[in-house]
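Record format v2
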Amino acid sequence: MSDELPEQFDLVVIGTGFPESCIAAAASRIGKTVLHIDPNDYYGDVWSSFNLEALNQLLEQPSPSLLNASYTWHDAATETNWTREALLAKSRRFSLDLCPRIAYSNGELVKLLIKSNICRYAEFRALDHVCMLYNDELVSVPCSRSDVFNTKTLSIVEKRLLMKFLTACADNGEDKCNEDTLAFRGRTFQEYLEAQKVTPKIASCVLQAIAMCNANTSFEVGMQRTQRFLGSLGRYGNTPFLFPMYGCGELPQCFCRLCAVYGGIYCLKRSVDNICQATDSQELLLSSAGKTLRATHVVSAPGYLPGMVCELQPHISRGLFIASSALGSEELNKGGGGVNLLRLLADEGKREAVLLQLSHYSGTCPEGLFIFHLTTPAVSNDPAADLAVFTSQIFKAPAPQILYSAYFTLTTPTNTALSPVKSVYCTAAPAYELDYDAAIENAHQIFSQLYTDAEFLPRAPDPEEIVVEGEDPSALNENSLPEDLRAQLQEMDITE
Amino acid sequence: MEDYKFLFKIVLVGNAGVGKTCLVRRFTQGLFPPGQGATIGVDFMIKTVEVEGEKIKLQIWDTAGQERFRSITQSYYRSAHALILVYDISCQPTFDCLPDWLREIQEYANSKVLKILVGNKTDRDDREIPTQIGEEFAKQHDMYFLETSAKEAENVERLFYEIAAELISQARSKDGSSAAAAAAAARQADTGSSIGLSSLSAKAAQSNCCGGSGSGSSTSQAG
C-alpha cells in the first residue's frame, strides 16, 4: 500500500500479545498516538490461536518463547473417519490456543471488557461443567443452587453440608469475622475444610474445583478463591466461567481493534532492528525496515527488543490433544459435547494442572471433535514428561479417541524487564493462571508508569452516542449521550 | 427490548481510499464527505431499515484503518452475516488486490457469509475498470455485484436494502446454508448459543447470593 507510515509517535508497542494489546488500546484511548507492530504475520504472539496447519508449522520451527515442541498423529488408533487427511482438510476450522484461559464471569477480564466497552468485540461460551476426579471417576461439581439440588453426585445430606459450607464462605469477611475462622488464619485451607466435618467427597469438590487449592494453599487464599468462584455464579450459564468463542487468540485482537478505532496504526510483519536514545531530545529512535521512527515510549513483549539478551527458562508445560470423543459420561457432554473444566492434582496435591475440554460449540474445532488443553507449571524441559502424571489420570479406559497430540514449553525471561534503554518497558510472559488477572495487572502497571493518573481503559461510547459533525445533536435523545455529557445536562436541569 | 426483528452484522473490506467509510456515512447519516476527525472512536454504525414490513437493524462495521498495512484482525470477520468488498472503479490497483482480499475472507470469515462486490466512485470520469469486468469477477467468485457512488448517493441505499432483503430471506429459509440462517437457528437452539457480554451486562447486575440463581438461566443472545 502506498501510504507511508508517520514518523513520530507517543508510544510504539512491539508484539500484539495480550498485555501489549491492552497497553496499546489504553494509550490510544486517552489520545496518545500509537504504532503497534508485530514481527509475525498474525496477531497475538504466544497469546494467539492457530489453525491446525499453522500450529504444526509453528511447532516445527520453535522460537525462544516456545520450546521443546513436538506433535504426533495417532493414525493407527483411528477407528473413525478422522484420518490425518480429514483433519488437515478442516484445518481452518480449528482455533488452537497456545495459552488457553477461561474467565470468571465476574473476574478482572470480564470487568475490564465491560468497563471499557471492548466487550462489543467479543463473544463467549459459558462453560457447561466444572468437573473433578473422584475415586477415578469424572463427575460434575454442582455449581448453581439448582445444580446442587438436581445432582446425583451428592447425597441429600451432602447437599445440605455443601450449601451450608458455601454459605459460610460467602459470608466470611473482614466485617463479619467470627471466632470459627479467626482460628484458621495462617493455616491451610485444607485444615479449615477438615474442621468443618464435611465428607471426603465434598472436601474434594471444594479443594479441587471451587477453591482451586492444593495441600499447601493458605486459608486466606483458599477463602478468597472460593468467594471469587461464588461471586461469578448465576451470571451467565450454569458455571462461573466463560470461554471466548473462536479461542483466546480473539482477546488481544479485541483490544487492538479498540486501539485502531481510536487512531492506533497497525503493522504486522514489522520488527524493530535497533533502539537508541536520541541525542537531541528525550525521545527514542527506532530503526525499522530502513526507516527511523521517533517515540516517547516503547513497550515490548519479552524477546522482541533488539540488543536485549534475554535468558529464558521453561515456565509452562502444555499438552494439546484433538480427539473424536469427549472425556467423561454422556451426562457431562449433552447435546454433542460440553465445554468443560477439570483441575487435576498430583504428587499429593503439590502439583496441579488444568484441563480444558472444548467442543465445537466453542468455535474452535469442527463438529464431532474435541480439543483437550492441558496446562501445568513447567518442572523440566520435557513437557510430555511434566504432564505424564496428569494424562495418565484422564486418558485411561474408557479413554477418548486421541487423533493428534502436541507438546510444547512456554518460556519466561529469567531477568525481567532489564531493558538496555531507559523508557523502554517490557511486558511479562504468560503466567500460569486460569484467568487474565496477572496479565491485566501487568498491563495496567506499565500503563500507569507511562501515564500517571490517566484512567486505564475508560468506557468507549457506543456508536449511537457519538455526535458527528454536521448532525443535529437535538435529534438525539438524552439517553444516547455519553455519560459525562448526560451528567452535565442533568446538573443544568437541577440548577435551573 | 429494542424494537427490531433481526440484527445483521455487515463488514466492509477493501484497500484504503476506496470509499468504505464514505459508503457507510452516506447510508447511515446522509453525509459526504464525512468529517475526517469524526471517524475517531466510531467503529460501527447502526441503521434500522424496514424491509417487507419488518424492522431490521443493520450494524455496519468499518476497518478502523487496519487495512492500510494489511493488518486487519481476523476477529473483525467473525460472525459477519454479509461482507462488502469495495474497490475504486477509477483505480486499477484496488481492483488488482481483490484476490488477496478474497483469500483473507476465505481464511477468516464464515464460509456461508453473503458476499457483495462493490465498485465505488461511479461519479468519477476517469474510470479504469469497466462495469463488465467487475461483473465478471463477481460472478466468478459467487458474489453479488453493484456499482455505487457515495458522493452522488447513487445505489448506496439500494446496496444496503438489497443486502437486508437477502439476509431476511436467508434467515427465513432456515436451511442452514447461510450465515444468517445459521444465526437464526442458533438463537433458537440453546446449546449452540454464545454470549455477548454487552447484551447481558444488564443481566449480570442481577443479585447472586451463595449458590447463585442457576435455575432456568438460559444463555439467549440478543443478536
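Chain A has four domains: 1-50+246-310+415-460, 52-94+124-140+312-414, 145-232, 463-495.
The longest strand of chain A covers residues 312-323.
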